[in-house]
Amino acid sequence: MRPLFHPAIEDIRPEGILHALSDPERAMIYAQIAGIGAGGACTAFASMGDRVIPKSSLSQHIKILREAGLIHCERQGVEMRNRSRCGEVDERFPGLLAAILGAYAHLSEKTPES
Amino acid sequence: MRPLFHPAIEDIRPEGILHALSDPERAMIYAQIAGIGAGGACTAFASMGDRVIPKSSLSQHIKILREAGLIHCERQGVEMRNRSRCGEVDERFPGLLAAILGAYAHLSEKTPES
């Protein structure tokens, strides 16, 4: 099985992070991963409120987050364990992730009808 | 001449801002507009360091920034005057723009060779 690609911290770029988090569904998956201290299994993110995310979309979202340098993924048997790289990313780009997740959270507070 | 579309502040969404600023060239144009207090003419952003931005690309960048709610554009005779909407956007999503522009600035400081 091919090893999973993870960019080195010095290769992580703002445009990659912004692109990865410019999809609200993907941003929500990232927020969930970042919120779980230990590695979360992919299956934990298979639904967003009432919506079910198809497995193929979920895999694609996880891949984009990983290649942007936002998460670290590790195969454990048949499962994939994901954890946020927010510590190192925040050291590189201080406040960026908090501001982005904050903007999405702020919006969902302001529009409870959506 | 059709009036230019500007989203109302309550319609501005994080995903639109992230998408608009996920292109480094566009982010740099936005940073220049945000840095100029008064309205800057489009022609002021026609070059980035040694690189010349084709007029068609520049128009497209400006349109995407405007539609994301990041800038306000106004025709003045044959010129287009642009000003940043950072005040209202920052009120809606505190710290977001500063963090994004900061990340790009931080990167250019760290990689002087690029």
Describe what this molecule looks like in 3D.
- The structure is a homodimer of 114-residue chains.
- In chain A, helix 1 (14-21) runs antiparallel to helix 3 and helix 2 (24-35) crosses helix 3.
- The first copy, chain A, has five helices and five strands, in the order H-H-E-E-E-H-E-E-H-H.
- Chain A is globular, with a radius of gyration of 14 Å.
- The first copy, chain A, has a single domain, classed as Orthogonal Bundle (Arc Repressor Mutant, subunit A), CATH 1.10.10.10.
- The longest helix of chain A is centred in the C-terminal third of the chain and has 15 residues, at 96-110.
- By secondary structure, chain A is α+β, with helices and mostly antiparallel strands.
- The mean pLDDT of chain A is 86.
- In chain A, the strands form two sheets. A three-stranded antiparallel β-sheet of chain A has the order 1-5-4. In chain A, strands 2-3 form a two-stranded antiparallel ribbon.
- Chain A binds chain B through residues 13-15, 17-19, 21-24, 27, 92-96, 98-100, 102-104, 106-107, 110, and chain B through 10, 13-15, 17-19, 21-24, 27, 92-96, 98-100, 102-104, 106-107.
